[in-house]
Design brief:
Number of strands: 22
Strand content: 35-45%
CATH class of the largest domain: Alpha Beta
Number of helices: 6
CATH topology of the largest domain: lpxc deacetylase, domain 1
Order of helices and strands: EEEEEEEEEHEHEEEEEEHEHEEHEHEE
Distance between the termini: 22 Å
Largest sheet: 7 strands, mixed
Structural class: alpha+beta
């Protein structure tokens, strides 16, 4: 059993880019924050209006995870939140001068590289984990079949994720434990992806206005159009990246096991909502049971995820 302290950034970090969906230019700063304050977004263009990153403020979940409070929006938060939780940053203020977090290269790698360059600051407060005490599940019946996500008691932060997309992606599965500290190498570099054939529909919906070959894997005519891939199974790794960012809206890192099959942002955040509403399903703990499992990210794609723990 391990007791960990909270961490913040050693110094402010600056990023600039455009929003994936809005296409709007944005300047963003990550600022060290006091222990116990968590992750808070701040709109500098709207009198420094603040939106804490938690499940109560989730809004407009479809092709990205957005937060809203009193009509003020912060869009596409998942990659940044994933990087913060994945790298162990507990407290930070995220300042933006527009409504959407910059997409950068479509992964969490630019954030993690910045964290590694400048380092983190250890704080006196003990980190609290959400320790899962009983199963919580979300199931959705769609035209493509059953989609599923659940969280169960377990050691570390185990993730078991399976996806199934048209060619050339097909079926991929990732098994891993975030407690192993392998996030920077195995998850952060995985980029978002999209199908060229969906582009007209998405643009008609006012989405992906900032999308380019430099910030997403583009798939068309049954092939990756802007390779090479960073991993043979980069697609499922990016879904794991998204999952970690979305589950960060629980407010703390989870101690338990997450199982997902063909889920997405809406189901990820629905699980957060259901978990937070069932206070008997979890407890806050400053001690984390760590028994890291071997990261098995090249399993046969025919393996099926269990429906239950």
């Amino acid at each position: 059993m391990q007791v960990h302290n909270e961490f913040t950034l050693n110094e402010p970090l600056a990023f600039a880019g455009v929003g994936l969906h809005s296409g709007a230019p944005v300047q963003m700063r990550l600022i060290p924050a006091a222990a116990g304050s968590g992750i808070v977004f701040r709109r500098t263009d709207l009198d420094n209006f603040e939106i804490p990153a938690n499940g109560r403020n989730v809004a407009r979940v479809s092709y990205a995870t957005s937060l809203m409070r009193q009509g003020v929006l912060i869009s596409t938060t998942e990659h940044l939140l994933s990087a913060l939780i994945g790298h162990g940053v507990d407290n930070v203020i995220v300042e933006l001068d527009n409504l959407e977090v910059p997409i950068l290269d479509g992964s969490a790698l630019p954030y993690v590289e910045a964290f590694l360059r400048t380092g983190l600051k250890k704080q006196r407060r003990k980190r609290e984990y959400i320790r899962i005490l009983k199963p919580v599940e979300v199931t959705e019946n769609s035209k493509d079949g059953v989609k599923f996500i659940g969280v169960y008691p377990g050691t570390g932060y185990q993730i078991d994720y399976r996806i199934d997309f048209p060619a050339p992606i097909g079926s991929e599965r990732f098994l891993g434990d975030l407690q192993t500290g392998a996030y920077a190498d195995l998850i952060a570099p995985a980029r978002t992806f999209g199908f060229r054939e969906d582009e007209p529909m998405l643009r008609d919906m006012g989405l992906i206005r900032g999308a380019t070959d430099a910030c997403a894997i583009i798939i068309g005519s049954g092939a990756v159009q802007n390779g090479p891939l960073r991993f043979g199974d980069e697609f499922v790794r990016h879904k794991v990246l998204d999952l970690i960012g979305d589950l960060a809206l629980a407010g703390r890192r989870i101690e338990g096991r997450v199982v997902a099959e063909r889920a997405g942002h809406a189901m990820h955040t629905a699980l957060v909502s259901r978990l937070m509403k069932d206070r008997s399903a979890w407890e806050l703990a400053t001690v984390c049971d760590e028994e890291p499992v071997t990261l098995e990210h090249s399993l046969p794609t025919m393996l099926r995820l269990p429906a239950h723990a």
